Amino acid sequence: MERENFIKAVSDMADQVWDFHERWNFWPFEGPERSAAQSITERQPILDEEIRELAEAVADDDSVEVAAEAADVLFVALGHVLSLRKEGISGVAAVTAKNAAKTEKTHRIRPDTGKLLPIHGKPHKWE
Q1: Residues 123, 109: contact at Cβ < 8 Å?
Q2: Contact between 88 and 81 (Cβ < 8 Å)
Q3: What percent of the chain is helix, strand and coil (3-state, nearest 5)?
């Protein structure tokens, strides 16, 4: 996969998430402000449906459909971030920085899930 193509595709999707929410008046910047929990609670059924569709595509072992459904999950997740307004953008920045700082010296891969866990410090909640 070419880095530039990946970055462009994700950037283009973020641009379209913005336009989509504006076009369908799913606009989080107008009307009463909701708490993060309220905003996500309202949107969660959409993400749940997309995750189910992704699981079905995986079960069908359909590579084209898996890619499309994974992208649908990302599109809706980006909408979740957008719905959180400034806090959503701050969350993206914080998670990006947190993951950028992870190295083989600071983290290890959990063998059963592939999740990165800290090497030092308190045990992870799953351990």
Answers
A1: no
A2: yes
A3: 65, 5, 30
